[in-house]
Amino acid sequence: MKQLQEKIVSEGRVLSESVLKVDSFLNHQIDPVLMDAIGEEFASRFAGSGVTKILTIESSGIAPAMMAGLKMGVKPVFARKSKSLTLTDHLYTASVHSFTKNVTSEIAVSKDFLDKDDVVLILDDFLANGQAVLGLLEIIEQAGASLAGVGIVIEKGFQPGGKTIRERGIRVETLANIKTMENGKVEFFEEATV
Ligand code: 5GP
């Protein structure tokens, strides 16, 4: 997605060879015009997949998931990172190791909002080692729901997450796939989807 690639080049900051900061339009301040285009792109890529629900993780997945949900006419649900201990019996839970924070946390989704009749589209802001997506897959499995695929705003294609998920036969659609961030310069794979 050209518009997204241009935004990453103009506003993204390469913090190290593996971490990209996009606080000005996705992870802190949010660009609604760009989110609108991102929502439209996901809706078009997953049109006809029978999606009934979008599943993401708080907090950075919420903005793109919200816009995609609006375009697709389905409700996004976000996995929460802190769960109320009084409600554990009514939750699907999974452990996720955070790439950026280097901590493992429990994510949880209420059984009220996901069940076996759902066809789920997983959406997230970044794909690095794939831990967040694997955690969400575990939750979908617990719910007995089906999976339409995974949509990612920014994939770091030089990290193993994309391969891990695709090797399971899962469809992964990426809007900007980064090939390298060496010397502070972001370079993309030719095609948005690899
Ligand atoms: P994974 O679970 O695939 O290893 O990492 C994906 C999660 O880590 C995303 O939900 C995202 O919040 C965070 N993340 C991974 N890499 C980056 C990065 O380079 N920049 C930012 N801002 N977040 C990242």
Strands ordered across the widest β-sheet: 4-3-7-8-9-10
**What is the radius of gyration computed over CA atoms, rounded to a whole number of angstroms?**
16 Å
CATH class: Alpha Beta
CATH architecture descriptor: 3-Layer(aba) Sandwich
Total number of beta strands: 10
In percent, how much strand structure appears in the residues?
Answer: 25-35%
Distance between the termini: 13 Å
As residue ranges, the low-confidence spans are none
- Helix-strand sequence: HEEHEHEEEEHEHEE
What structural category arises from helix and sheet content?
alpha/beta
Give the tally of structural domains. 1
Form type: globular
Tally the helices: what do you get? 5
Average pLDDT, rounded to a whole number, is 94
User: Considering DSSP H and I runs of 4 or more, what fraction of the residues is helical?
Assistant: 25-40%
Family: Belongs to the purine/pyrimidine phosphoribosyltransferase family. Xpt subfamily.
Keywords: Cytoplasm, Glycosyltransferase, Purine salvage, Transferase
InterPro entries: PRTase-like (IPR029057), PRTase_dom (IPR000836), Pur/Pyrimidine_PRTase (IPR050118), Xanthine_PRibTrfase (IPR010079)
Protein name: Xanthine phosphoribosyltransferase
